Amino acid sequence: MGYEKIEEFNKERTAAKLLLSGLLEMSYSDMFINFDKEITNEKAEEYLELLDFYVLENVPIQYLVGSTNFYGRRFNVDERVLIPRPETEYLVDKVIKKLPNDLKVLEIGTGSGCIGITLNLEKNYQVDATDIDEDALAVAKTNSKMNEADVNFIQSDLYENIKEKYDLIISNPPYVSETDEVEDSVLFEPEVALYSDYFGTMHLSLIILGAVKHLNEGGMIILEHGHKHGLYIQMFVSHFIPGYRAFTLKDLQGKYRYSVIRKRGSIWKRDK
């Protein structure tokens, strides 16, 4: 069996386990402990039906079961919001480990709310989380209540309805270009949360430009973006925001997927 077939087999097996885990509302470890227990015929039929949707139509598992896990917590997801990625979870982990507690934070484009909710619960951050889409905010509010978080949600197109200043502005904005190839499963996710003009840079640029008047002294911007956007962001910041500089960070695959934009002496602890 070739490597590609092995990889495909492992992917399908993982998807099947993930689907069953979500359907039964059990963790992998709980499923292993209870592997000898029978499930009802109804559940078995529902499982096979959902598996068909995944295999034949590429519907994301998370949408089929209506939830996903992020930083050890359950979040509801459906076609109104993007499915949180491991890359975003990795970025949130970096923030948790490198920044102090009790910061005032603005999250732009919250979607499911996973970033803002996690930072509120893990770091006691005072979080304002925005989204342009009322439907996405409804999902985020449900997740906040379900996880007992204290996040203030605001409907806003970028900074339109924002009056405060913050220690941190964080965003995983739309950054996919119309010319980019995407997996079939991504086509089920909301376009407004995916695509951005000017080769995927428009939202990134607008967030950076608008951030300066909403940052406290020593505050910073943290962005997730495409792996080809890092150099563009460095040049953009250097040209349009005097006194600030941007540096990029790698994701789990070794790709430059995050940018930290700050003045010297900011609150970010750089790797030695």
Spans with pLDDT under 50 lasting ≥5 residues? Answer: 1-7
Rounded to the nearest angstrom, the radius of gyration is 20 Å
> In order across it, which strands form the biggest sheet?
5-4-3-6-7-9-8
Number of structural domains = 2
CATH architecture descriptor text of the largest domain: 3-Layer(aba) Sandwich
State the total count of DSSP E strands: 9
Percent of residues in helices: 40-55%
Taken in chain order, the helices and strands follow as HHHHEEHEHEHEEHHEHEE
The CATH superfamily of the largest domain bears the name: Vaccinia Virus protein VP39
What is the name of the CATH topology of the largest domain? Rossmann fold
| Global structural class | alpha/beta
**Largest beta-sheet characterization:** 7 strands, mixed
Which outline best applies? globular
The top-level CATH class of the largest domain is Alpha Beta
Beta-strand content: 15-25%
From the N-terminal CA to the C-terminal CA, the straight-line distance is: 43 Å
Averaged pLDDT, please?
88
Number of helical elements: 10
